Amino acid sequence: METAAAAATATTVNGPYNSFKIMHKPFMWFTSQSFRTRPIASEQFPEMLEKFEDDFPVLDVFICTADPYREPPGNLANTILSVLAYDYPTEKLSIYVSDDGESELTLFALAEAARFGVHWLPFCRENGVVERCPDAYFSSDNYAENSQLHKIKLMYEIMITRINNVVERGKVNEEHISNEDEQEAYSKYSSDGFTPHHHPSIIQVLLANNKDKDITNVFMPNLVYISRQKSKTSPHHFKAGALNVLLRVSGIMTNGPIILTLDCDMYSNDPSTPKRALYYFLDQSIWPNLAFVQSPQRFHGLNWADIYASEFKALAHANPMGMDGLCGPNYMGTGCFFKRRAFFGGPSSFEQQEMIQDHVVNKPIEAQTILEQAHQMASVNYENQTNWGSQGMLYKS
Ligand SMILES: O=c1ccn([C@@H]2O[C@H](COP(=O)(O)OP(=O)(O)O[C@H]3O[C@H](CO)[C@@H](O)[C@H](O)[C@H]3O)[C@@H](O)[C@H]2O)c(=O)[nH]1
Ligand SMILES: [Mn+2]
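Above: query sequence and manganese (II) ion SMILES. Below: predicted holo C-alpha cells.
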C-alpha cells in the first residue's frame, strides 16, 4: 500500500510538470509571434554626429557592485577601465561606482584603476584599441608584440596582483597607502561602529576631470566611489536602491542628461558605444518619445564549447527588434543608455532644485558644497523624508 501511495503521489507531481514540458514550447512560440509582426532594423550614420561634435551631452555611467568576494574587485577594475577609455570627450564623461559591499577592497580597486588608467587611456587612443577592457585585450591575440605593449601589460599585471593581494589579505595595508588622504579614506571602514549594515555614506572622488591628467596631459574623466548610507532600521532595496542613490548623487555632481547603467560583472567591448547610442538620442524625430537605448548582452562561458558564440540571438537581437516595432524593447537590467529625463515626471520629480533636467553643474566635482549635497543624497534619511521609492511601482513591485 505504501508503495502504491508513493507512486500515486509521484504521478500527481509529475503530471503537470510533464504537461508543462510538452506545452511550453508551443506557448513560447505563440507568445513570441507578436515580436515578428513589425521588426525594426536600425542603422547608424556616422556623419550625423559631426554637427554635434563640440556639443556632445554629458554622460554619467553607473556601475553597481555588492560583494568584493563574490564579485572580484579585479573584474570591477576591468569594467571601469573599459568605460573610462570610451571614445568620448573626457570632460563629458563620469563613472560612478556604487559599492553595496561597503568595502575598502573595492575602493582600492578604483584607486588602482585610476592609477593604471592614466597610462591605459593614451595607450588605447594611440593604438586604436577596440577591446578597451584590459583583461579582454590581453587575453586576445589581437595585438602586436612590442616594447610599448610589454610595458603596459606589465603595468596591468602589477595592478591586478596588487588588487588580488589586498583581497586575499582582506585589508588595505600601509604598504599600499601613499598619502594622508588615502589613509583617511581607508580608515573610515574601520571607524567605531562601522558595519556593512549600518554606516554613514562614503563618497570618494578618485579622478576629477578638472585636475587629473593622463601621461599625455589630457584630462581624465571623473571617477567617483559611493558607498551609500545604510541603517539597520531602513530597507536598502538592493540594486534598485543603489541606482536611485547614483541617480541623485550624479544629479548633484554632473547631472548628465544621458545615463548608462552597468553591472560589475560585465565590460563594454566597443569604445564607440556611447556615440552609437547618441545617434538615437540626437535624432530629433525620435528624441521626444525615446526613454532608453538597450545594447545587446553577450555572455561568456555559457557552456564548455560555447556553441552559442556568446550570444543569445533570440533574446538579445531578434525579439528586441520586434519589440522596437511595437513600443520598444525591455530594459535588460544592464548595458542600457537612459535619458535622465525619463526618470522624472512622476511625483518624486522636482523635490531638489539641483536635480531638475536643465540644471548645469558649474562647480568642480570636489567643491565642498557639492560633496556635502552628495552625502545628503546618499543618506537613508533623504529617502525616508521624500517620495523617492515610496510612490510608483519601484520598491513595491
Ligand atoms: O544589494 C545589491 C545587490 C546587487 N547589486 C548589484 O546588482 C547587479 C546584478 O546582480 P546579480 O546578482 O549579478 O544579478 P544577475 O542575475 O546577474 O543580474 C541580471 O538580472 C538582474 C535582475 O533582473 C538585473 O538587475 C541585472 O542587471 C541583470 O544583469 C550586480 O552588479 C550587483 O553588484 C547591488 O548593487 N546591490
Ligand atoms: Mn550578474
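The longest helix spans residues 2-32.
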